[in-house]
Amino acid sequence: MLLLRIASTHIRNRLRQTIVSTLGVALGVGFSVAMASLMEGSQRDFTATLIDAIPHVEILDEQRAPAEQPASAVYDAVTYHGLRPKEDLRGIRNPTEALASLRDWVNGSMAQRLSGQAVLRYAGQDIGMTLVGVEPKRELTVSMIGEDMRQGSFEDLDTTSNGLVIGDKAADRLGADLGDTVTLTSANGVAKRFKIVGLFHSGITTSDEGLAYAPLKAVQILLEKPDVINSIAIHLNSIAEANAVAARAERQLGYKAVSWEEANEGLMEAFFVRNVIMYTVVGAILVVAGFGIFNIVSTIVHEKARDIAILKSLGFPEVDIQQIFVLEGLVIGILGALAGSALGFGLSSYLASVKFEFTQDVEMTHLPIYFSALHYIIACLLALFSSGIAGYIPARKAARLNPVDIIRGAT
């Protein structure tokens, strides 16, 4: 307590410089907390939007490794020439059996799909579309398409055998509207007439212009793939199980199963790199604040040289002298960390209240701020670390001063 009282006296004697150094630490901690809250909030918001928009696990009609050529079992050949592969209709066969086997252990919702390319024609205009055949009620449990509907209802596909739901931008390009009848032509030349029963707007141009939904049976007829699907979408109750579910489903069915993490591996790596950059910048800000503490403690050491000599002559060991000046740096750091935490909370709260409106289709939105005690703990620990280092360097110099030389120089 005696050492702390001496350190406090030194700090109070240079109150103006102490306030400036404390403000430097407070600003560093405050802006670091606000930036971390904004960065992690935006990451969590984007990830949540991504997870809601795509299946947690998707089983595709593909093999993870190419099938081995039958000749490889007999001949040690390096390459093959003149092979004529057997024509095989791609798709997941026996989808009813596959879905039944998954329902026994998958904790979530599932929906089967059949996707293919088709040309949408209306009033003499053509648009290439990705046509997705779905079971409407099941599809609504694995995707957010129901929330993106602007006109009509996605469930109307259940009551209209040749119903069609397309993006509003595709409808604008064609000049079509709800209730109009359009023609879809598959790559095999099969044409079928559909009635538009709904328009959606997802905010993604490629989807709003080039994606269409229709009843599964109608799409199977159009693409000439009866009783065949090419993907199973799974929405899990716990996204943490995505990788395990994908691995087990792939072993069980033999088809490639992709979790949302594997499908967005590059994005997850980009988030990791961004977090490294964020905490590096936070550390740099607090190191700069530490220079202010280093400056004030060094000045105190220079001004209090005679006091140091007196303390040493009274029997204070070098360790105590060193602790006095380290405590001075830590006191400034603690005061700055507390003030900075309050500032960071205030900045984060203000940013969370700021409203933005981008287009008429997007409602008023706020900045995605994520409040976490971890941000405050990390910022405060970094502040105390830089404060301790800033106080330790001049403290070592103070502890090594020779009291005889100081008093002789003073006289």
From TrEMBL:
Name the UniProt record assigns to this protein: Lipoprotein-releasing system transmembrane protein LolE
Ranges for domain MacB-like periplasmic core: 18-251
Superkingdom, taxonomy of origin: Bacteria
Keyword match Transmembrane helix: yes
Domain ABC3 transporter permease C-terminal: 281-403
Location(s), subcellular: Cell membrane
InterPro entries in the cross-refs: ABC3_permease_C, Lipoprotein-release_system, MacB_PCD
Pfam families, per database record: FtsX, MacB_PCD
Membrane topology term: Multi-pass membrane protein
Family to which this protein belongs: Belongs to the ABC-4 integral membrane protein family. LolC/E subfamily.
One Gene Ontology cellular component: plasma membrane protein complex
Membrane spanning stretches: 20-39, 276-303, 324-347, 367-393
UniProt entry keywords in alphabetical sequence: Cell membrane, Lipoprotein, Membrane, Transmembrane, Transmembrane helix
Organism the protein comes from: Roseibium aggregatum
Lineage: Bacteria, Pseudomonadati, Pseudomonadota, Alphaproteobacteria, Hyphomicrobiales
